[in-house]
Amino acid sequence: MFESLKKKFTGTIGKISDKVTAEEELEAASEETEVVKSTEKSESPKSVEKPDTKPVDDRSSETESKVEDGKKSGMLGFLRGKPNETDEIKDEKSIVKESSELETPISDETELIESETSEKSDDKSGIFSFVRNKTISEKDIDDILFELELALLEGDVAMDVAEKIINSVKDDLIGRKIRRRSDVTDFTRDALKKAISNILDIESKDVISLAENAKKSGEPLKIMFVGINGTGKTTTIAKISTYFLEKGYTPVIAASDTFRAGAIEQLTHHADKLGVKIIKHKKGADPAAVAFDAVEHAKAKGKELVLVDTAGRMQTNINLMDEMKKIKRVIHPDLIIYVGDALTGNDSVEQAQKFNEAVGIDGIILTKADADAKGGAALSIGYVIQKPILFLGVGQSYSDIIEFKPEWMVEQIIG
Q1: Where do the TM regions start and end (predicted)?
Q2: Is 369 assigned to a binding site?
Q3: What is the DSSP track for 5-33?
């Protein structure tokens, strides 16, 4: 149910998250490179001078002098107790070796610098895995929301509704500060939920409370069903009868669609199966008279509600619309419910507008909602005529009807 809408909204959440975080990560990576370069430059070692081949201290100079003296003095120098030449040379080599060990080889120094640079780069990678106080701009989301708007229009969402959703999401997202990718996802999901909730936020009517109040007053609750041919209006009346029977109320059905003989037979079949009283006249009788008789029967028998079927008619058929207005004048219904086919999308929205203009609609029932993959009608119809959806038909059996809850639909398409 509503798979298309769900796919569109889920895709939008992912696209916005990807785009916002991808741009930030690119910027962060660029800044990271600059920081690393700057660090390497500021911490690069001074030029390392090659070790001087000359003796490293005064002792080496002294040794060299003694060697010269030894050469000159020869055996005399040895007899006088001076070290011989061989010993002096050994001492010289030892001193030079010790001096070399004190110096850090160039290759070792270079490895140390590279190691320090790598460690600093690793330290920064943790920081750049976060989105650092990024602010969502219109540039980040404009193209994606434009795509969403087109997708909604293709999914039979009314233009006014699509525009309201897009503007609401923009208002909520632009200027938001985020720190990590999950923030973008959460903010986008919340913005879409809020936008859809506002679309569906129309004061509804609790039909059970209305029936209870009618019972206390001694007057039956009168519900009149209108809509065009083929929307499942007759079957819907049978489902609503089942709904009230399960709640402990006793309905009576008025077969006021006298325009079509098959409608009377069909409604009689449903009433007999449910054990519900049906009031009917012959084909071509006055529909208003049938409705009036049903109300009088309910009063006399103490039944809590009257469900009035009307002839399916196109909203452009002026004569049949006038006949429906007459029924309204005669019985003064407490509720007029438009029954629309969810699969017809924007056509159903347009039809509801015409019926609302003609007789005034108090609520909506959408049939075949279980087969509606797009969901455009369910999202749009109530907002366009500012009337609540009361029930959804979700199957073929008498119990396949559910009360419509805005939060339920939000959960269905956003999750």
Answers
A1: none
A2: yes
A3: HHHHHHHHHHHHHHHHHHHHHHHHHHHHH
